Amino acid sequence: MKPGSLTFRLSILFALATVVLLAGIGAYLYRFLDIELMHRDHAELAGKVQLIRHHLAAINSLSQINTAPGRFRDAIIGHPHLRLALLDDAGNILFASPAWRPDAAILKNPIAVDAAPDEIAIHMPTHDLPYHTLAAWGGLRGGERALIVLSVDSREALQLLENYRRTLFAAMLFGGLIAAALGFLTARNGLQPLRAMAETARDISSSRLDHRLDVAHVPEELKALAGAFNAMLERLRDSFTRLSNFSSDLAHELRTPINNLMGQTQVALSRARSAAEYRAVLESNLEEYEWLARMTGDMLFLAKADNAQAPLPAAEINLRAELDKVAEFYQVLADEADLKIVCTGEGRVVADHILAQRAIANLLSNAIRHTPPGSEITATLAATGHALELRVSNPGSGIPPEHLTKVFDRFYQVDGGSTRAGAGLGLAIVLSIMRLHGGDASVLSEPGGRTTFTLHFPGGVTT
């Protein structure tokens, strides 16, 4: 058991809690026993005072105490811890039991003859005189009086308390050890589900992300942790799947332009050619290079968006103004395709205006490519709930329902054809831009009807 382990810590906590509990209970019982022993001694002294007073009331003079000491000796027979002395007014000892020792302090303030025994103040023991002691006057039948001095030896009680302390310390020590052992067993058994989770985590690798924790059979306190762990595994599997698909798609997309470049270069080098022929080959290769550069730039943007750490340089912008700028630029392309771009609505959002323009540009470029001549593309701003929506809609053949959930995937083509018209990354970039802003992108389409892409900007307002 390692000192830093949770089992070790729980065992120590069990032991400490047990020691503290035993110490508290022991201290209470020790105090209770001490008081009870003191009360017992005091009650015995009070009872004996009553008995000695009774004997004194039966004699006529102090001289009879000297001549008949037996009755007073008999009063303490069977009580070897008691000490008795009888004194006259002058302090002369009339009777004293063996081992009696005078106590000057108690002799100064004896209680009255008529005082009840439970009203007496008992002199507490000291190191030199370990006795509970009292002094009380007792009246004789002839009118004289004698001072009764009674002491009870407290050493036996003190020894009992000392033994109790030793027993208590031993109980605390062994109780702590036993609690530590029980705590270890309890913690080890209670933490078994955590070890099972660790075993499952140890078996997980990039090729075995389908393993899951059995949430139904873990303790209630660990269900949230097990559920979060399973959700993390699900996200990891999704990320690995996307990364694997992205790598495969990337290799597929790069292979075509590279093969084209290699083929054209090999053909050009197969025999001597004129400068015009070499120029034609270079011009053809330049188109491939430009396409590779665009695709590489798009992939770099997506990679940065997926791992964005620094906050966006966002500010409040007039989204209608940004929309008009992009629409004016793309209207030239739209005119060539006999199309018209119509913008409506107003609104302001907090966003990076460059990224917002890029998202709008990708949607308009996509709409121009898929809209039949003589049609109209609309771009509308509208407030919905706590978001401002930008909807780009165009007529056309529409997107089949089975493709709607995949159109924002990287390199995905609805018709399964070539991506040379774009890099197959335009809509993926749109989605990444919106998620960088805390928003989203969606699409609705009817086969043979209109297709509408919507950008959801959170917190936008209409103006």
Number of helices: 11
Overall average pLDDT: 80
The counted number of beta strands is: 11
Residue share in helix: 40-55%
Q: What is the string of helix and strand elements?
A: HHHEEHEEHHHHEHEEHEEHEE
Q: Into which percentage range does the β-strand content fall?
A: 15-25%
Distance between the termini: 67 Å
Strand neighbour order, sheet with most strands: 6-8-9-11-10
Coarse shape: rod-shaped
State the major sheet: 5 strands, mixed
The secondary structure category is: alpha+beta
Unreliable sequence segments: 417-422
What Rg is obtained from the alpha carbons, in whole angstroms? 51 Å
In short:
By secondary structure, the protein is an alpha+beta fold. The chain has 11 helices and 11 strands. The longest helix is centred in the N-terminal third of the chain and has 51 residues, at 6-56.
